[in-house]
Amino acid sequence: MNWKKWISIAAAVCLAVTAVPMRAVAQEELLQEKMLEEIKEEQQEEIKEELKEEPKEEKEEKEELKEEKEEKEEKEKLQEQSDEKTEPQEESKKELPKGISLLMEEENSTVVSENEAADFEGEGTAESPYLIDDVEDLKLLAQKVNGGEAYEGKHFKLTANIDLKNEEWTPIGTLQGEEVRPFQGTFDGDGYQITNLKISNGGQYAGLFGHTEGAVIKSCNVTGKINGYNYTGGIVGYADANTKILNCSFQGNVKGKGEGRGGIVGYMSGGGEVSGCFVTGTVTGDKEVGGIAGYGVGTIKNCYALANVTATATATATGVNAGGIAGYAYGVTIENCYYSGEVSAKNYAGGIAGTAWRGTIQNCVSLAESVSGSDYVNRIAGYNYNATLTNNYAWDGTTVSGSAASDGADLTYTNGTLSPQFSGIFGSDNSAWKFTDNGLPILKNVGGVQFSELPKCMTGVGFDGFGIKTNPYLIKDAEDLKLLAEKVNSGETYTNKYFKQTANIDLENEPNWTPIGGTVIEHPSTWEISVFKGNYDGDGYKITNLTTTEDSNHVGLFGKVEDATIQNCNITGNVNGYNYVGGIVGGVGVKTKILNCSFQGSVMGESDCVGGIVGETSAECEVSGCFARGKVEGLQKVGGIAGKGVGTIKNCYALADVTARDRIAGGIAGGTYNLTIENCYYGGDVLAKNYAGGIAGVMDSTSGSSTTIKNCVSLAESVTAGINSVNRIAGGVRDNINLINNHSYNRTKLVIDSKPAYPTGGAGNDVIGADVYISNGRVMKDVQKGEVFAWTGFDKAIWYIPTEAGKLPSLQKGTYPDLPNLPSVDLTIDKTPQHFTTRNIGNGFVVKVTSEGTLNESIEFTKEYRLHDTTGEWMSAVPNTAGTYDVKITRAADGDINPFACEIPEGLVLTKKRSSSSGTTTRTYTAQFDTNGGSAVDKVKTDKNGKIERPADPTKEGYIFVGWYSDSKLTKPFDFSAELTANSTLYAKWKENNEIILTIGSRKISVFGREIQNDVAPKIVNDRTMLPIRIVAESLGGTVTWNGELQRVTIQKGADVILITIGADTAYVNGTAVKLDAAAFVENGRTYLPLRFISETLGAQVVWNEAEKTVTITK
Fold first, then answer.
1. pLDDT by residue (tens digit) across 1098-1114?
2. In the beta sheet, which residues pair with residue 413?
3. pTM across the whole model
């Protein structure tokens, strides 16, 4: 017995039975539409013929009788059809097994319930609702409802955010022919987001839900674009029969032809309720258009709309109707609602309602920038027919056109202060709202992205747009960009808000750009770093002449971002900072994406984490489709794309010289930690004291994770280190690393301590990468066979691979970077193969190369490489003839074959170095300077006397320069008066700068050699220097906390605790009372404390210079 088959048959029979009452419902809907048209005619007649009320009512009574008769006949007809359908159903029931037939005794049989249970996890009750876990579940719900299952009395609950990915959405509940198939259950979004909803087919009943009856839709947050016909809403298109929509939000665009267009609901019938909802975006339709509801009957309360509302139909006698909250309010109660935006209709336009037909509007506020139309245009209700308007307010700056009357009392915004009526309605006594003085109220129990900043039309400051994906805030010029930085650095994160650049921006007049985020925000007892958490789309426009000069942390166009998206930004300029410095972003928090951005110029950092695009990334971050060109330099962890990388870097390239004055430099990323780098390439020179690589400086990962370099190409001309660890792909490798299908230029010069270095590891896909060659302006896989390198792994949907010589792959169609001017394998004398032999000489190799000479004679020459030669015994002599050759050297130690890129001028020999003597030419030598973390010093060559000139002393934050030494252990001071006898490296010696210097009346403070600008200057009170002490105490290793209630400062260092109360002349150190010469005080919001007392208590020495009025604190 196939029980599944019998159950399916039973379910189908049940659906056939339930289809009959659905058809009756459809007829009821048609009757309601007819009645709606009659109501509109009634409005017109009542306006024009108030004195003819009785005849009109008689006429309506006749028409109602006629409609009732038609309805009765239609029901009888449907009943006959139902009877016809019943007989075969009964036969089917008789044929079913007894167990199944018992299940069919009720119309809503348990067979359907079991079928539902198979579709969704859960039982469909309030205690155990059906669970909507993903997009497939949501689609299934639409499919089942549109197939005839209403789910009356059933409960659904969303369990996760759902991204609809802009795929065409079929609403839940629809019209099938003349039959309405509504959703009649309860749907609880549980505060989750349904994003990227798209409806573009122009159908009737459009929204997340198309049609509902007696349903409850709550805690549902939707973003997207909806284009429908009649009855279209962001949440529900047509809400019938006491439907309730609670605590929902829609952010996006609702538009289309026809009537009934609302941000939340297109049409709401009697008994319906919309409560605790908000809309951000635009709502556009022919007529009956509202920010919350297009056509409303019922209740709208505790809602707001920040949206432009537009009705486009030609003016009619009954009105086109556009309103900030409701387009047409028929007997509706609208209370505790507000609106901001622009309302426009040919006629009947209002800041709250286009038409208020009877009903009530109370405790509502319109902050509309404008309400426009030809007639019946007002700040609250465009046309009022016997509606009660109570305690409503409108901004006195609203521009009203048409035949306007002043309805609603004035609400003002003067000198940065909003008049108190707003707070009276939405203040602390209203449990639905969270109200901020001089800001917009927001709803407490609603998800989505809310923002409390007053509109630009009121304050004169702000951004055009609504800050949502479909209507972002617009960045039109340098002033808008500066305003964004100002707002973020004041504490506004713009979480999940959207910005879009609309033009090229030149920052030439901003000689020192203040980054967006990354500044310190101080609070009475703590501090925080400002951070941008929104989405910024440069839209392909340029930002030119970006310049930063502050020696501070978190520097770039953006200083600090987190859970943000920065995309399509193209920047040129010069960026300078301390730690976390990048051309686009300085420091990146978790879950951030930097997409399709470029930086061209120089990025310089005094310390760690410096990158051409980003200084440092964090977990779950992605840098993709980006490129950097120019120069990148820092102390350590320096990279062409990222200084320190965590997450993913893919489809990027850097054509930039990358320098780490200390350690860890890489063409793409300096330090890599749990990072994947794939489909990237690099060209330029990489330099570090140690750990230098053409793609990554060092590869590292934590336990349970790994770091991977895959499908990457290094065309580095040179990779140089002062001490150790250089390679063509990765300078140093540690635990859990993977190198897959990587390639590198075969002639990349590897140098350690000014000497040629041999690559570590073996040939192939390791730290070296497989060979590629340069020949006739092309990157080649095999020169002899003429095989061009195919850029394997580079997705052709993202990359544009050049066909002409001298070009490299590009991320921008039609614009290809130039191939770096690298030595080629092309022979200048002949093209015959080069023959060579090798023999081991301990710590080096002798290579004999035989080539056809210029006179068709065989010429043999020898070159000797000493890989770890520190004696300086060898020098080269170059005869007149020249040619370049590739040589493969066999490493005798372990038998591995490694491609060793050598440039061998033909005839080059190495000979023993000879001392200069009379009649001979003095050799010129070069001294390079290792500053040990200090500022860079250029190389110097010997003069005719064989001596070098002493360069200017380098600088290093927190240290004082002692002098130059000839050994890395800093035991032998270098004598600049002596002759230099070999190429040498001199090393800088430093001593720690442990002094803090303050000057009375000056806000500049020198902290361990670094100048800091304080917000106030120290002053003298009772012969004692007083200053807000945080910067000094923390520099001395202490922590400072403030208790506003007790008016007390607590300073702690280790086990020592200092307590100072404002106005008291006694302090407590570890519980012991200490008399103060001057009491702490507060002035202009800043707390002044005795400097000497605190410094000495924290273990420092304090010296006062009377002549210069300076205080020196020595740690």
1. 888 888 888 888 888 88
2. 418
3. 0.62
